[in-house]
Fold this protein.
Amino acid sequence: MRRAGRFTPFQAGLIALILIVIAAWFAFSKNLPFSSPFELKATFTNAPPIQRNQVVRIAGVDVGKISRVESAGDGAAAVVVTMQLDEDALPIYENAEVKVRPRIFFEGNLFFDLRPGTPEAEVADDGFTIPASQTSAPVQIDQVLGTLNTNTREDLKKLLVGYGNAIGGQPEPGEDADQDPEVRGLTAGQALNESLEYSADALRGGAIVNQALLGTELHDLSKLVDAQSRVFGALSSNEAQLKDLITNFNITMGALASEQDNLRETIAELPEVLEAAGPALDNLNAAFPPTRAWALEMIPGVKETPATIEAGFPWLRQTRALLSKPELQGLVEVARPAIADFAAFTQGQVTFLPQLDLFDRCQLSVVLPTGEQRIQDGNLTTGLRNYEEFFQALVNLSGESQNFDGNGSYVRFQAGGGAYQVQTAPVGRIGPLYANAVAPPLGTRPAKSPKPPYKPKVKCHTNPVPDLSSARIGGGP
């Protein structure tokens, strides 16, 4: 008996068939079965035959395909095309444009050139419909032939006959006097055949140019095509300026042709110029960020300049009136006493300011450094600066001078003697002094320095800073 759980040949073949169908579906559809791609709709009027799976491109890069084509309804000759876009194509804005372009010359398959729009517009949601005003399609051969009525066909016949005579007809005497000597007397067709001798080199040069147009990095060519489309769009919207441009371009090329020898020498020097221009352009590019930042900082000031100038006009009008001859005469008459006093004041400043300078120097060089000293007098040293001890002494003196009731400070005097005899050193004519103390002294204060001699001609700031800890009197337990 067969073991339970094994597949029969029929079951195995059915499973293999299902797997093959799923793999083939993935290979050709390239979509997940449950995915929901972004859909964008567009309305076209008089559009060429549009089919499903036609390519949608942005700047030459495939970003989606056509999933559905349906009539706009209401009997209008318009269709609504549904496009399924990849995530790389997003975001799409509401001012996006779509153009139907042929993939090969003279009809053939089509592709949809999608321009995503600009960030100034709102972002298009899934299912957004681009209106017909933002879509366009190429003119078809049947549309062209539909315009060829009897009169038009006669005109076209005359055009073709005239074109044949222009190609195969012999030139009239003097008609080709300004042409190259090698083609004078030949028909236009014969001259074109003669030009084929140079076509090999021309085509080789064209191939080199086309290879260079591919660029050196990915998407260089698509970026070039996109930039050219914007340039050509701008040119087509300014036909008058384009006409002038072509005329001036013809004049410029004629001037260059007349100076072909100098132009050849200039082009020969161009590689060295380009080699030297590289570092210069790098330095210029490095200077752009600070320049750009400076320009941005200048924008608010530039915006305020017109208002500032406008606000200054009343002041200028008033100033012009004040500076007029009648006003100046009255102003001078009123200001004359004040000017005399100010002149005297200025003359006094000449004497006062040097004395003020000497006073400031004295404070800075002698008085302030003296006040910053810390007097080192043994056990009674407080560690405070001299000026701080002075202010604390004033506080103590204020407290000592209060009344002697039980609520305030009071002074205790002890009359009598003790077991410890103290003696002071003689000062000047005063001999040593003696006394008895009930406790040994903790330390001694420095003796009062003698009064320095008064020298009015010596500048204060030239004196050295006195050392307040150097003058001490003897004593001790």
Notes: Residues 472-477 have pLDDT under 50 and may be disordered.
